[in-house]
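Section handout 9: paired folding examples.
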Amino acid sequence: MLLRFTVANFASFRDEAELTLIAEKRHEDLAVRAVPRSRQWALPVAGVFGPNAAGKSNLSHALAFVRGAVLNSHQRWRPRAEIARRPFLLDPETVKQPSRFAVEFVAGGIRYDFGFVCDSKEFLEEWLYSYPEGRPRKVYERRAGSPIVFGPTLHGQKVQLERMLRPNSLFLSAAAANNHEQLLPVFDWFADDLRIAWEHNFEGRLRETRHYLEARESKAVLALLKYADLGVENVSFSDVKLLPEQAARIAELIRHLDSDADGVSPDGISAGMEVELSHVVGGREFKLPLELESSGTRTWLGIVGPIVSTLMGGCVLVIDELDARLHHHLSAQFIRLFQDPRTNPNGAQLLFNTHDAGLLGPEAVATLRRDQVWFSEKVDGATSLYPLMDYKVRSVENMEKRYLGGRYGGLPFFDEELLEIVASEVRAAGA
């Protein structure tokens, strides 16, 4: 369960920005989830709206950076490698300043506050607090150049872990790599419960869809494929086989590059997947390869597996550009899956960004409440993130109309004088 995320000096976020999924009030008709040992409720959905290049995607990129640092900094990052953060580059001062990230979440029924500060060379600060009884309890605090301060309830190997810690690795990452029992639930939340879908992990998401289609959950995935009205009746996957000698060479290379891959077998190596989708027309079945399908069909096929697993596991799914290749009505139904307690009984969460102002309209299938709507806009190249809650919004108000009318900001600005330049050039070329 994601509660809050804070980021500063990353990509277009020059100043600190915070997004919260804490509900303004309990929404009885939404799949809200109680925050342990509090009177608060976590929202199932939050959407960030704004124009192109306003920095909406950088929010998901920042979450992905935090997740990657937790999962990989100790075992996969090279000892002397720079930390691949992305400071705000449009100000010569911020390039030199550190970046800051903080995530508040619930794992294993306990609320946690985790975060770190880093520059390009090292982690300058790192902290973890837990709230087992509603009040913050220090698990550990780390500052560069000083010994780590451990809370009294953290047991197990600590001094040994601190000794092996590198400047460019997180303590949480090192602890999980060494199987620290108390910290594994925190690590596992980042590894398993925080899921990010964007363009470059499409193949992995497609494999997840395949997994569920070939497992007992296939009915749910097929139902969602058919529900999208794409004309798809079934999907089949097959591995593209390599020649035995090619597979053997690749297996040997993998074992050479990764000491933990001693058991890799040539039999498990393929050149990729072939995907065919079945369509029934006039009582006859036709199979088309995935590459001949529409971009919307490919997008939906690559996301239905993660949707099912997220809903089943009560996880967090972060979608970059929800409306990029999906029809407005399908995007709305996507949101509805998470809003509706019937399809989301486990309190899964969806965080997305979009240009689709229609999702704010009165006729939207999945009505977003005002505490679920956020806007992003740029001023002097820096992204600001702010909630619709900053504005007085009546329940009968048409949020789509008011947003498109500029009431809430977060819209592109079009300079008409620049069109005059275009018109002049076009006229001159035709003269």
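Moving on to protein 2 of 2.
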Amino acid sequence: MPKMKSNSGALKRFKRSASGGFKRAQSHLRHILTKKSSKRKRQLGSPAQVHESDVAGVRRMLPYS
């Protein structure tokens, strides 16, 4: 039986956390940054957790993570 393929788009966007969930980057940090406060930009730089209702879908896309 051949190996399963991971979704390459998901591979670039999600990393498995030690607790079994998935880490993701936050959006809104690419452009139009002048109107955003320094605090907001700083907090957007930190990783976030994938919501529990979406974890099953991410796990399906990344079978070997």
